[in-house]
Structures are given as structure tokens and as C-alpha cells.
Amino acid sequence: MSQRSVTIALAVAAALVLARSAVFLLWEQAGFDADQAIFGLMAKHIAEGRAFPAFLYGEGYLLAVQAWLAAPLFAVFGSSVAMLKLPVVIVNVVTAALLVWVLYRDGGLRPATALVASLFFLVASPVMAKLLVETNGGNPEPFLYALLLWVLRDRPLAFGVVFAVGFIHREFTAYGVTAMVAISLLADPRIRYERFKSAALAAAGYLIVSQSVRTAYAFSTPFGPGTTIDAALSAADVLALTNRYCWVPETIPASMLRLFGDYLGLPFGATDHRLVDFGVRSQLPVRLAGVPPFWPVLGTILAAALVRVLWIAVRDRRPLWRGPGAVATFLLLIGLQSGVVYAVARCGRLEADTFRYALLMLYVGVGIVALYFIYEPKRAGRWIMTAVMIAWAAISAAGHVRLFEEYVTREPAGPHRALASYLVERGIRYARADYWTAYTTTFFANEQVVVASTDTVRIEEYQRQVAAHDRDAVQVQREPCAGPGEEAVTGNYWVCRPVK
């Protein structure tokens, strides 16, 4: 296969990812909230030399990779949502190119076929596209870490290093390791010296990185500028992390039914939801007008394709975990783990606002389609699958075009930006508000206004500054003031003056 074909496939993959990220890169209000603003404030503090966070402010997990990547851009171009999201978009582009590359190199697919098999990621639905460019701690990175683990599977020390960075950054990277172990044991269950040696090297790589990160954490600024490690913080972080999971065995059957009956359709944009349910500032539904929720159809096609692959694998004695099919099986196992673990660990609460914990389910579709292209000997079957993928990509692309058209012709308002401008223009320097308002507004105001949080606190400096100017601090709230004050952002925010 000519190098030119490979280059074209990789370039198309990159272009598709940039296109589906455009709205969220060009319009700051399209998908931005306080969790992401925290990483923006972290990047600003790093660029100014005021803080050196190892993890998300206020936590002992969620490695601050996104803040450190954005900090140089902030230092050169100033702080903005676009500069904050740009490194994350680049992560998406690298992931897309690597995905096409491994399906071509290790799956034996033609470059164009590898491109088609990757469309679920390349032309991800608007919901997925929004979540994949969020800067809230690690939505897109596990997709890349998993592929890097596959590429480094024969280099155990580097494998351990990548796993350490990935796992400390976002624990979902572990799905790549368990999938790799499963494939390896299925291919060869024998216990050999080489395996112990590889495991020891991988463990060494993991320990080197993890201990380095923990050392850096000990000297970091966990709650923003001027803060130090509190001995109670680590224990609190472990408790906070475990509280995100819930284990009630009797809910598992119903969770599995919902997972495969409806929830698995979310990453493919095939269900009936509103974009706003996933934090997209839009009045549009997920599905196109005239196109009913199509997960029953798409899910049936994917299930039939998998059954066909399994039958061919058994018939021809070509195990899925050996040869060209291994990489696609690897992706499929990652996606299945992501969905099943999420469903089992949520006590039956499969919700839109926690969908970010199961984003790797997208690899279910990529894995099945890649397996089908690898195993299906009939040209007609491969052409039918290609047509299905192109039809799906057209529907997803139409959703992006529709969202782009909404922002061009009737751009949704950005209340946080409007609030920040209101406070700056009136010379208000200090305020209090709920978490979701406080940090987003402070970021948009470039810290010309400091807003302390009235609930979850992540930056202690803001709390101290506002407390020191208590008599001048206003209260920002989402309902009319009981005393003196004014409506700052029509229908969204009221600024209430302190009674002196």
C-alpha cells in the first residue's frame, strides 16, 4: 500500500476531528462550565508562576495535565477558552491518527477501510464531540492512553510509564491493561519467565512515575496559590473518589438491560435526548428532525456483525485474540468494560450527567466494525458495512452542521461572560456565588473580579480575599434580591448589594 494513501487517510482523520470540534473551540459558551474553568484558572496560575498544581485543585486525583499543557499558550496568548481547549483538540487529533494507523498496521486494513472503521470517533456525534474537548480532568486522554498501551505492548518499561501517567490522570486507562492481559492470556496461557520479567519492568515504570507524581504532589499547591498539603486532604480525596461509585448487586440485572437496551446508544448519538442534557448550550435535540432514535437499528446491525465475526472465527479457527483481529478485539474489550463497570458501579443510575464516566463505550462500535472488516470475506458484506458507516457519519455530520448553523444565525447567549462583563464594568471586585457561577465568572473576568464559592471550594485564595472585603462583596444569585440589588443578566443572574 502506498505511503500516499496512508498519509491521505491520516490527514482526513485529522480534518474530520477538527471539523467536529469547531463549534466548541470557536464559541466559548457552547460547552464550558466551572469544572473546566478550574483548569483554566490553574493554567493561568501556572503561567504566572503563582501555583504549581499536581492535580485538580481541591483533589488528590485527576492529574493536572490539561492545565500544564495550556499554561504555555496562556503565557503567550493570554487566557481564553480557545487556548485552554486547543491542547485537548490536539489530543483528539493525535488519537484519531493513531487509531487509523494501528487499524491499518496491526489490523491489516487498507487505509481507507481503517478510516471508515474509525468514523465513530472521527465524526463523533455533537454530544461526544463536546465531551471529548472538555477540560475537566481527562475525557479524551484515556482514548489515547489505551492506544499507546497497545503500541507499547512489547516494551514493558515504557508500557508501565504510560499506564502510570494514564491511570493517575484518569483511572479508566486501566481498561486498556485488563484488555491487554485478557488477550495475552487467551493467546498463550502458559506462565513463562519472559512474562514475569515484562510484568516486573512494567511495574518498575509504574512505580517510578507514581512516586514522582506523589513527590510533586507533596510540594504542590493543592487549593491554589499560597496553599500547602493538608494531611487530611489525601484521605478526603480517597473518600470523595469512592463516593462516586455505588455497589448494590440487586440493581445489576436492570442496569445491564438498560445499558444494552438504550444507554449504549448515547456515544453514537442514536438516542432521544436534548443537547442541553449533556451541557451543550443549545435548544436542539440530539437527533435530527425526521430521524427517529436509531439505536435499535444501529445496535442490531452491530450485534449481527459481531455474531457474524464470531461464527467466521470459529468456523475458520481464527481466534479474535490472535493475528489482525487482536487490535480490534482490544478496542472492543475496552468499550465493553467501560459500559459494564459504569453500569454496575452506579446502582442502576445511568444518567446523562455522568455519561463522561463511560465515554470509552465508543470503542465498542469501532472494535466491532474493525473486526467485521477484518473477518468478513465477502465483498458485498464489507460494502454494506461501509454504507452503514457512511450513513451514520452523514447523520452525525448533519448534527454538527445544524449546531454550527444555530451558532452562526442565532447564537445562544453566554450568561457567565455577560455576568463577568457586568461586574468588571461596574468596578465590582469581590462577590460570592454558587460553585458553578463563581469559578466560571472569575475565569471570564480574568480575575479582575474574584468570586468566592458558597458551596464547593477549590481555590482558598478567593475565599480569603472576599472575606477580607466582606463589606464590599456582592452576592450573585439566580433569583431576585430580597434587598437592594439589580438584575445583572436578564433572566439569569441578580447582583445583590450588601446592607451597610
Can you give a write-up of this model?
With 500 residues, this protein is mainly alpha-helical. The protein folds into two domains: 3-409, no CATH class; 415-496, no CATH class. The chain has 20 helices and five strands. It has helices at 3-26, 34-47, 65-77, 81-105, 111-117, 119-122, 126-132, 141-151, 156-169, 174-187, 193-218, 231-242, 252-261, 295-315, 325-344, 362-375, 379-409, 415-425, 435-444, 460-468; strands at 430-433, 450-453, 474-477, 485-489, 493-496. The protein has a five-stranded mixed sheet with strand order 2-1-3-5-4, with helices on both faces. Helix 4 runs parallel beside helix 8 (141-151). The N and C termini lie far apart (78 Å). The mean pLDDT is 92.
Give the proportion of residues in helices.
Answer: 55-70%
| Number of H- or I-type helical stretches | 20
Largest sheet: 5 strands, mixed
Query: What is the rounded distance between the termini?
Result: 78 Å
User: What fraction of residues sit in β-strands?
Assistant: under 5%
Determine the structural class based on helices, strands and strand pairing.
Answer: mainly alpha
Low-confidence stretches: none
- The largest beta-sheet arranges its strands as 2-1-3-5-4
What is the H-and-E element order? Answer: HHHHHHHHHHHHHHHHHHEHEHEEE
Mean pLDDT: 92
State the shape.
Answer: globular
Structure summary, number of beta strands: 5
Total domain modules:
2
Supply Rg: 24 Å
